[in-house]
Every structure is written in C-alpha cells, then in structure tokens.
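Lab meeting, item 3. Inverse folding demo.
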C-alpha cells in the first residue's frame, strides 16, 4: 500500500510539473508574439541576444574602439557593454544603428600602468536583428593611432535568451 502511495504521488507531481511547464511556455510564446505584432522593442522577459568577444587585454597606452555594422534595411537599437574579467560592467551605452550604417564607441584606459582585462558585448532586444549585425573591436595605440589588434566577425560568439522553467518546490514527506 505504501509503495503505491509513492508511485501515485510521483505520477501526480510529474503531471503537475508538465502542465505548469506547458502553461508557462504557452504564456511566454503568446506574449512574445503580441510584442512582435505591436512592434515593441523589449520582449516579455527583457532578455537580450547579442555577441560577445574573447577576453582582451588593454594597456594604459591603448584605447578600444567598438563598432557594429547594420546590414538590415531598418534601424536597430543596440547596447555596447564592456565587462572586466571579474564581471563588473565598465561601460554601457545605447545606440541606434541606422540601416546600412556603422556606429562606434571608444573607451579610454582609466589610467595607471596596469593591464585591464575585459570582453565586449553587443546586445539587441530582438533576436532576429542579431543576424544583421557585424561586430568588431579595435585596440588602438593612443600615441600613434595605429591598430594593435582587430577582432571581428567570427571572433565573436553569439548568445540568445534561454528559457529557464520556474523551480517548483516539492512539499511534504517523501
């Protein structure tokens, strides 16, 4: 009798969890479709897609030029985010990249003789816009204005929102 009680409880909990996941997924899909139809920039979960560079080193005699090309026939809002090796956001700025144009931002080394380690993220609110953006980063010598390092295209990796189902606490004694 006790064995069947555990099996029944497990079956009920499994069915409830599956129902909850289906309902949550349907709700998020409907909300995302609604947002696309209305033309809103942000989606229901406010999660962004984007590109991230490899870890880059910057000396006090250098500066960074971050650029993105928009290959689409419409303007795309983007966010440049510079993150240090410990995960601290060093700089963040919002831009609108006009159709067929390029936009760039520069970041100066904050000073001192230390080497600054960072990576760049270029984010957008709509995943479908990501395929029309081409990112690049230049490390430029501040004294000569010559490019010391150029990273672009395939040197970036893309990231997209991931659906994480909500956690459900199992109550009672097992």
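The presenter then showed the designed sequence:
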């Amino acid at each position: 009798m006790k064995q069947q009680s555990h099996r029944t409880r497990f079956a009920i909990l499994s069915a409830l969890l599956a129902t909850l996941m289906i309902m949550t997924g349907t709700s998020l899909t409907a909300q995302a479709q609604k947002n696309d139809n209305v033309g809103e920039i942000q989606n229901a979960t406010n999660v962004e897609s984007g590109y991230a560079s490899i870890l880059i080193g910057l000396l006090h005699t250098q500066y960074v030029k971050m650029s993105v090309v928009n290959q689409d026939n419409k303007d795309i809002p983007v966010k440049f985010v510079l993150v240090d090796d410990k995960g601290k956001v060093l700089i963040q700025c919002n831009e609108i990249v006009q159709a067929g144009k390029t936009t760039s931002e520069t970041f100066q080394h904050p000073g001192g003789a230390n080497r600054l380690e960072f990576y760049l993220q270029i984010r957008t609110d709509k995943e479908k816009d990501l395929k029309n953006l081409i990112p690049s980063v230049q490390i430029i010598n501040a004294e000569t204005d010559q490019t010391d390092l150029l990273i672009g295209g395939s040197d970036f990796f893309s990231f997209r929102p991931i659906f994480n189902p909500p956690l459900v606490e199992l109550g009672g004694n097992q």
